[in-house]
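Follow-up to my post from last week.
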Amino acid sequence: MKAKSLLIIFIIPLLLGFNSGKKSTPQADTQIALVKKIVKDVTYKKAGQSDWDNAKTGLPLNDGEQVKTGAKSLALILFIDGSGLLRVRENAILNVYGKSGNKKLDDKNTVLTKGTIGFEVNKQEDEEFKFTTPTAVASIRGTEGSLEVDDNNSTVIRLDRGKLDFQSLKGDKKSGSLTEGNTARIDNSGNISITPQSQEDKNKNNSIKNTNTKKVKIKTKLGDIEIEYYSSENK
Amino acid sequence: MNRKKIIIKEVFIFGLFLIFLLNGKTSGQISNIVSSVKFGDAKEKTPLSISAELFTSENISDISIAYKSFGQNEYKKSEMLIAGNTASVTLPADVIQPPYIEYYLVIRTKDGSSQTYPLDIEKGVNPLQIPVSAFSQKDKEIIILSPDDGEMMSEKELLISISFIKAPDIVDIKKTKIFLNNVDVSSSELIAGDLIILSGENLGSKVSPGSKLLKVEVFDKEGNLYHSISRSFETVTAEVAMAVSSRWKYNGYAMGESRSENFGSESVWRNNISAEFNGSIDQWKINGYAYLTSEEKSYLQPYNRYSASIQGGDWLDLKVGDAFPRFPNLIMDGKRVRGFTGAVNLGFINLQVASGETAREVEGTLIEKFTASNAPLGNDIIPINSSKYNGFSFGKVTLGTYNRKILAVRPSFGSGENFQFGLTYLHSKDDKNSIEFGARPQENIVIGTDLMFAFDNQNILFTSQAAVDVYNKDISSGNLTDAQIDSVFGPNGNFNIDPGKVKQARDIIGKFITVNQYIGPWNPQELSSLAAEAALALNYFNNSLRASYIYRGNEYQSFGQSFLRTDVKGLNLVDRFRMFDNKLFVSFGYESLQDNLQKTKIATTTYQTLSASVSIFPRTNFPNITIGYNQYVNNNSLKTSDPTNGQYAVDDVTNRILLQLSYDFFMVVKHNSSLSFTTSTRDDKSLAMTNAKFNSTSLNLNSYWTPSLMSLFGFVYSASDIKGIPFNYFTLTVGGRYRLLQNKLQLSATLSPSFGDFKRQALEFTADYNVLLNLNLMFQSRIYRIPGASTNSIIGLTARVSI
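User reply:
Got it. Predicted complex:
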């Protein structure tokens, strides 16, 4: 009897394990995005958890999950409805939010707490795509540019293509529209300035689009160690 | 459906193919110039590359392709780029429309004659068809998130991810099959909610560097194929991926070819080298291309091709060298220009320019000299320099070609998304001093305007263009002199017009074009030099309706557009219904054209075309089928019994039926097959009585036995009868491709004998060896024998280095 029980205990997991060659993961949360590429130090945290886990290529990101990049690191994130791509640069923290239903993703919101992201968002039909920072919220329909939150929580939006509407979350909560080739700065007091992109802004956006990495190979007695990192100085 | 049923179904469908084959009277294409024509996957509104493999480029002056969409009567033409033994062209996206496009090739030889492929198009032989598949709504439901089309990534970075967030509930994600280069890798997939994910880590040894075709087959819950999508990408080593991901990206190749061509007892060596370089940094792209061949001769039009270009995003495009600029097609389209072409597109205002030569000078030859008193009349008798030729002032010559320059400028306003208005000016002139032995140098000016506006995301689209030209047929004598004007105009001249005003007009018009007695048109009030067209397209309720009107006067001429049919006006209507998610296409077309616009002919001919087609693209385990019908009715109302003009009577009706099937199926191994059947009958009631019947059937079957071995089998059967003279033949093609030495060596061989009224045996063998990572050597041999006539061969070696 004991042997039979042991056999059942072994066989059932084996049957379950070999039932199908395809692995399915339980999926209760709303999937929002997918990590397409990581360089060096990229971690993520599930909503409500305190521990950061290492992210891997192909990791699905669910509603409310947080991604963090370390120094010289990079993550490329795709929204699963094909609506956009985010390039998360080094030392950035962001959350992705959204709701799934009626065969689409609604209320897509990327909250950038710190750092810089580049974005390429396809033209939206009736689906909303938002970026939120500590000082601003931007509503997007088909644009390309970058979003930066500096140490003073000021927000800088540099737009290469398309148009977006934004609103300050501080002070008088002023709102405005930004068109391509311009840069908006929203400071911690809610002040807004819109200027044509300077050469520095253009260089910055070009640098953000660049996903080139460098590698360092360290030879040790136990074998070679290879470290791949992203360098913002890459040309 | 169980396996047995599937096999029965496939056998049944294949049987249907055979029934068609056995019952069909058939025909096909024969040519001693073109070996075969290859084309890519024809998808709606996607540019389509077509290349013609040539038995030899010997004696070919140029090759152009004539093509048209369904329901249209008029072919557009484009010059093909000849490189080695291949002529290629990319057809623009706007003509690639379901259910099919029709085309034929026009080959001009160095002796000035021309032939078509298929042969005898002008006698009513049917053109070739390329089926065009339509977009599917399902393409939007199943999203390939990664990789991007054409993306390069390292094996380690490889991520295949498909999103089903927009897929309907009937789709069973777990049944999805994923193939990489026809290898099923589905067992490695990870399903996470609405996502399927395969990473390089999961795939392990299944991925090696090289080009990859990702094919995703999606099934419904009952196991029926719901949709199939594919994408090409490339896996490379980490080092290459790093270089590619750099801001500065580049690729290129250098290639050298040497080949020996033997025609009967004659033998000739030909050599060519070509190189291309592409580089990009951010939005900037540069390209350099050069093709240099030993066939380049100063006494022929150029065979060498070279160009360099720079592109800055969508707003700047500059090119020097050889280019085929596209202006409004009434004015300039498909013509090679060697010089400068460029465009600046700022949206609200844009500028497009082309400047260079369309023909280079080729000196003629003096054959015989005459004095003024004994010179005979003839097109090839021209004045020569008597002081240079011992008092002989006329010569019989082979006429040379003048250097012809062209300038086209088109400013336009509006981005073209919802509105654009353009103005075009074209001036082209032969340099009369560029050669000694030539006749009738010419000059041409065209002024045109074009307008487009669109509403509702271009679901309502109106386009129009109009152009007028002034054409001087002989500028050798230059402008009219004051003395000439005084002698012809005035109270004592032939025309009682104030000579002063004529001189004034000459001085003003002469700033643009040479003014003399050869300038035209002389009847502009009859709109003889006007070309215009307008079209309205409506796209609603899965129905695309397009109505257009064209008018082209009999004297309209643009040196930037050699291929335009003139002296024609009429209406064209095309309606395409899409049903069942683009699985079923029903198309109707009607066109009525008339010539003799300026009453320059004895009678007016009406050309009526009626077209109908049904296409089925089931996207499941069943063939794609297209059935088409065309009727061409040409009539000019003259009776053959008319004793005076009966010889000019035009009265013929051609009926053509087309059936095309293409089917990918699995029977022991995977096969791609296509079958086409065309029959046409022309009933000619004119005195020429060129009654004709053409029937043709062709079958192609590609079988993929192993990842390394592919075989091909095909045949063409043709039966034609022109004025009671039959011409029947059968061409069989068998061949295969085998990869060995870890895919470094690829061997291909094809044997293609023809029997019947056309006899020929053709054998082709190629060996392509990847010597080093970036170096390929290819040996190619072609032998074709025409029994009782000649045995010809081409043997060549090609080396290609890629960077």
